[in-house]
Amino acid sequence: LTHVLAANDVIRIGSALFAATGAPADQARLVAEELATSSLMGHDSHGVIRIPEYVELVERGTIIPGAAPRIERTSGGTALVDCAWNFGAVGAHFAMDVAIELARGNQISCVVTRRCNHVGRVGAYVQKAAGRDMVAIAACNSPLHGHFVPPWGGIEGRLGTNPIAYAAPTGGEPILADLSTSVAPEGKIRVYKNQGKAVPDGWIVDAQGHPSTDPTAFYGPPRGALLPLGGPAGHKGYALGLLAEILCGPLAGLATADSAAFGNGLCFLVFDPQAFGPIQQFKSLVDATVLYMKSSGRSGGDREVLVPGELEFRTRQQRLREGIPVDDPTWEAIQQCARRLDVDLVALESG
Amino acid sequence: LTHVLAANDVIRIGSALFAATGAPADQARLVAEELATSSLMGHDSHGVIRIPEYVELVERGTIIPGAAPRIERTSGGTALVDCAWNFGAVGAHFAMDVAIELARGNQISCVVTRRCNHVGRVGAYVQKAAGRDMVAIAACNSPLHGHFVPPWGGIEGRLGTNPIAYAAPTGGEPILADLSTSVAPEGKIRVYKNQGKAVPDGWIVDAQGHPSTDPTAFYGPPRGALLPLGGPAGHKGYALGLLAEILCGPLAGLATADSAAFGNGLCFLVFDPQAFGPIQQFKSLVDATVLYMKSSGRSGGDREVLVPGELEFRTRQQRLREGIPVDDPTWEAIQQCARRLDVDLVALESG
Predict the structure, then answer these.
(1) For testing the chain B interface, which of A114, A201, A289 should be mutated: the one with the most B CBs within 10 Å?
(2) Which of B106, B112, B238 sits opposite A276 (nearest CB)?
(3) What gap in Å lies between CA B148 and CA B228, rounded to an integer?
(4) Per-residue pLDDT tens listing for chain B (351 residues)
(5) What tens digit of pLDDT does each residue of A206-220 get?
(6) Is residue B42 left, alpha or beta, with left meaning phi > 0 and alpha meaning psi from -120 to 50?
(7) Is B330 helix (H, G, I), strand (E, B) or coil?
(8) Are B242 and A179 in contact (CB under 8 A)?
(9) Which contiguous run of DSSP H or E holds residue B289?
(10) A130 interaction partners in chain B (CB closer than 8 Å)
(11) What is the rounded distance in angstroms from the CA atom of residue B348 to the CA atom of residue B51?
């Protein structure tokens, strides 16, 4: 059974629930908009499904609504931002706003975070920068309990799926990439598990390090591992995941193996293309690069050459028209949250 | 037949030959040292083999010895460097020196290049930054004739093998990664071709886009293509290669599909860890991260967990003791260069 919600209804419902947990109205809305956008763009694992999860994290004291993110230290084009354990999206948007502002003054900036909760779709923040005519790169790490990915040559998880995202402005929608440095994000294995299906070859190993297609061999216990991006060239995925870890962990003064850590670490890099030439020239050159990619012969009859983000922007258009599918357990959990928090869902749905 | 040269002999021979083409002594030595270091670290495709190639590029007017690299424009933490078509290593070292200096003032810097010849091993430049207690990331692109890599879903080359390199200082040797965003660098296919061997599955397609293991199907004509990193997740390798292209092409004001372009484009990012905390704290945290990686169980009896660069530093130690193997065609080409340039090789070899 699937419930279909209009994006605006998701935003209204999420805003009301987060506000009922104690979040200021603007921050409640920002988090709800972020989750609605993730669902609109097809990233369901970072979308509506997180509304009840975030409510529970507030109830458990993990998320502190209204806590004020602040710049802990800044010099030159850099800043270390304390996200104060507010919603991850509140901290991450604050950090990206700082990075964009620093890039206006220094043409290049680097912002790293501490005490940041789950940030959701990392692409959201670089997408924001591209909307301000900036190029941005983001790296994200996870703490010990999310270390699903072994080093190359190893079998025990030592790194998160550590996504790297980037965005660049064009004449139209930005180029927008958001990729885990493992062969797949952990959420995709969870989907196979929930559906009782085998995962593709080459994704996971069991706790003994043997190749497996059984998602329960990954989740254990004992837990298996999710392989780094690259297959036979997995040393490259490992190197990229380790780069994200260095930028989000040690650079921010945080230990990789800290067993008490939770939430996400972020490193944002923002480039002002106007440092090197007029912004219109940059956008025209990127547009030409996109056309050049698309001029390649195709590998299959109906297989299209896309640039990163293109599929997500199409899904957004479709779901703005047709609504966002919400599975039954998620809709049930949202209704339970509403009852606990005394929020009237019926009054919020436009119907 | 293999000739074995001591690293110092490679430097003496290379310096003498490059100086004989008109390079100032310090620049001739810098280029020769760079090639010797690449060979020492096991990157033979970017090492001694390039000495006769570079001599020929000077003779053809592609490399302009002694031409002065300069900062074309600079603002905040950024600079656009004109490498003036000197040897690529001269331009790239100049650009990295600018980036390190900018990072001292701004804690984060970004330098892009124009008019830069073949830069060799991209890892060399980030390694230099790590030696100055900086973290550095480099991206590198290639012009049209080096577009071996198709976009995801395509079959015709539209991107170079666009390496991404990074280095971070530790208590010992730096972490040093240098990876093409294709499944393998083009030079490795050349080695298979020269040996008359099949390349591994999943590396190349022929001109019709069909999977192949025949290196001659890759080189053509008609030319095939070298697949992006990631196998079934090749959209990720494509996204990373496209990122390198955006940073080295459009950001520097250069068109991706310019058929007259040659040489390499570079984008250097340099981070001063002291922006966020004491340098010793950063190095200790990275050392702890390395130990944590190595604490993973191993995937095979004698398969070791390494960090990026570790194998290269071991090879360097070995080749400093045992010398650098130089194949017969390369040694013959070096002797021909020496005769043309009236350089006495015998006097240069320590024997």
Answers:
(1) A289
(2) B112
(3) 9
(4) 578 999 999 999 999 999 999 999 999 999 999 999 999 999 998 999 999 999 999 999 999 999 999 999 999 999 999 999 999 999 999 999 999 999 999 999 999 999 999 999 999 999 999 999 999 999 999 999 999 999 999 999 999 999 999 999 999 999 999 999 999 999 899 889 988 999 999 999 999 999 999 999 999 999 999 999 999 999 999 999 999 999 999 999 999 999 999 999 999 999 999 999 999 999 999 999 999 999 999 987 667 899 999 999 999 999 999 999 999 999 999 999 999 999 999 888 765
(5) 999 999 999 999 999
(6) left
(7) helix
(8) no
(9) helix B279-294
(10) none
(11) 15
Measured between beta carbons, which residues in chain A are less than 8 angstroms from residue B137?
Answer: 243
In 3D space, the residue among A80, A89, A73, A78 whose CA is nearest the CA of residue A28 turns out to be A89
End-to-end CA distance of chain A: 18
Q: Which of A306, A318, A312, A320 is nearest to A124 (CA)?
A: A312
- Give percent helix, percent strand, percent coil of chain B, each to the nearest 5: 45, 20, 35
The burial class, CB within 10 Å (0-12 / 13-18 / 19+), for B301 is exposed
Nearest CA in chain A to B307: A239
Q: What is the pLDDT of residues A161-198, one digit of tens each?
A: 999 999 999 999 999 999 999 999 998 998 899 889 99
Q: What is the pTM of this model?
A: 0.97
User: In whole angstroms, what is the distance from residue B278 CA to residue B273 CA?
Assistant: 7
C-alpha neighbours within 13 Å on the C-beta side of residue A91 = 30
Residues A23 and A42: their CA atoms lie apart, in Å, by 26
What does A57-122 look like in DSSP terms, one character per residue?
HHHTTSS-TT---EEEEEETTEEEEE-TTS-HHHHHHHHHHHHHHHHHHHSEEEEEEES------T
* B222 interface with A at CB cutoff 8 Å: no
Chain B CB contacts of A164 under 8 Å are 240
Provide the 3-class DSSP secondary structure of residue B253. Answer: coil
C-alpha–C-alpha distance, residues A35 and A43, integer Å: 9
- Within 8 A of A230 by CB-CB distance, chain B residues are 183, 229-231
The structure tokens listed for A315 are 């899904």
- CB atoms B239 and A308 under 8 Å: yes
Amino acid at A227: L
**B205 touches A: beta carbon within 8 Å:** yes
